[in-house]
Amino acid sequence: MIMKKYLLHISCVFALAIGMSGCKKQLEEYYTNPDKTTNPTIEKLFSSMMDNNRVRPTYWDLRTLQFNQMGKYCQMTAYLNELTTYSQIDDYIQNRWNDFYTPNNQGNNANDAGSGSGPLAQYRTMQRLFKELPIDERPNMEVFMMAGRVLLLDQAAQMVDMFGDIPYSEAGSLDATATISNPKFDSQQEVYDTVLTQLKEMADWFAAATLNTVATSAFANQDFVNHGSLTKWRKYINSLRLRYLMRQSYVYEDRAKTEIQEILANPLQYPLVDGDGVGDNYSPVNTDVLVFQLTNYTNNLDNAFTEIKAQAAPDYMLNTVMLPVSDPRIPLMFDKFGVTINKVFYPNATYRAMSQQWTQVMQSDSINYYSTIDSTTYRFNSHLPGIMMTAAETNFLKAEAFERWGLSGGTAAASYNLAVRQAIAFSYYLHSTNTTQYEAVTQPSTADVDAFMAKPAIAYSGTSDEKLGKIWTQKWLAYGFTQCGQAWAEYRRTKYPQITVWQSTSSIYPLPPTRFTYPASEKAYNTSYSSVQANDTRTTKIFWDVK
């Protein structure tokens, strides 16, 4: 497959492209009309924010960013040990940056590579339109403003996790004030504080909200993620709070401990995406927060994997974490694969990943003799949903909180056990979404899962540090191949799983980076870049990366 991508010219990216008069018309087009309609409306802009192929698993995002960069850095995906394997691919990082600040999801072909929904730009337009509404019409649209803010806050936190300081509070001035300004870089701590403070406000707003009939109908029609359910929005918001409070908990522990205790001790006020206590048989489609593929989407992820040899099973994941305990997810996540000789296919006898420590030549010569990513679940599945929050992630976060701080509202063991069971059930759910089953695989039985959970390497036993290691490793595994960004963030925060990092002989890129450096547009056109330039290195750590 030839990679295709609509790229904005670097000097025409967002309002950050300061002083480029030739780009002003294009900038104005994006900011007065980001959803490319004659009369943008708040509810349609909200839907457009959700229509985000940086959340849905699609070729472009996974091929260029998740598999090829973030997945490598935490060995969520396999990769060839090339000299520059840890180098940042600047064009792809520019794309990711653009997709937060400018809409790029407006094509009519669902198979196109357009990726991001430009949540910041779209929300700034929503804010302007809301202010222009007559006072008596605002109650009809307020729920869209609140839910849209939640989407923006989640994406802003993810930008911090990748870059550190970002333009945020002053970004989007063109639509807000009709002037092009030079947005400052907000400190990453300030952005996280804004995210957490406003998510708490959103949690309380949705808990008390009663929508009128107009708002109820409009929200149900436009909300294709939670289908207008205020309860599901409440659960999603509080699980996001749990994620980002825990993400910074080794820096701001008192805040994390206090706010998480409030959440866990008050499940009626602060419900969570936790599966309501159901493990083996919980229903991800009804419980989790997922973005489904468009009905006219027919592509799959095979090229995203194979173009960079990421179809190979990851060494540490399969050989160290899963095979020694006969993990029931193995046939759901991997194919044994094999070799073709004289047009005859000879399948490999067992599941096994090739070593991530081999030379590039050895890897290239051996790839067919080892296991690969599963064809049904991942490579040829056109129906994989985008994952915004799962019950398993929430329960792993709860388990960590209970283990570290002894909070009330549950136990670490119960939350961990539930999370692992849900993660297994979720793997089968992903497998079942494919209407073409390339091999017959049944859902692991409760008896099989019970036997798996009793194994010493999985059972919730050992010292507190050992228990935390199990929580973090199993959470990393549960993120799977389409959430490499979350896996990379948690790897940097916890230093789990305890992978052996292959070291390149490159003097510039010997090891994986701890963050992305800023794209060319910022360095060239945003004069505020000077305030962050000194720390714009690949080895500068995000503020929560302190272990």
Helix content: 40-55%
Based on the coordinates given, report the CATH architecture.
Alpha Horseshoe
Number of domains: 1
In CATH terms, what is the fold-level topology? Serine Threonine Protein Phosphatase 5, Tetratricopeptide repeat
Question: Rounded to an integer, what's the Rg over CA atoms?
Answer: 23 Å
Structure classification: mainly alpha
The end-to-end distance, rounded to whole angstroms, is 41 Å
Overall mean pLDDT stands at 91
**How many beta-strand runs?**
8
Order of adjacent strands in the largest pleated sheet: 1-2
Can you tell me the CATH class? Mainly Alpha
Poorly predicted runs are 1-37
The largest sheet is: 2 strands, antiparallel
Strand content: under 5%
Give structural notes:
Helix content is 48%, strand content 4%. The protein is mainly alpha-helical and 547 residues long. Mean pLDDT is 91; it is low at 1-37. It has one domain: Serine Threonine Protein Phosphatase 5, Tetratricopeptide repeat. The two termini are 41 Å apart. Helix 18 (391-405) runs antiparallel to helix 19 and helix 19 (412-432) runs parallel beside helix 21 (464-479). The strands form 4 sheets. A two-stranded antiparallel ribbon has the order 1-2. The protein has a two-stranded antiparallel sheet with strand order 3-8. It has a two-stranded antiparallel sheet with strand order 4-7. It has helices at residues 24-32, 42-50, 59-73, 90-101, 119-132, 138-163, 173-177, 188-208, 213-222, 230-247, 253-265, 284-287, 302-306, 315-322, 330-333, 360-366, 375-379, 391-405, 412-432, 446-453, 464-479, 484-494, 520-525; strands at 166-167, 185-186, 289-291, 334-335, 338-341, 344-347, 372-373, 386-389.
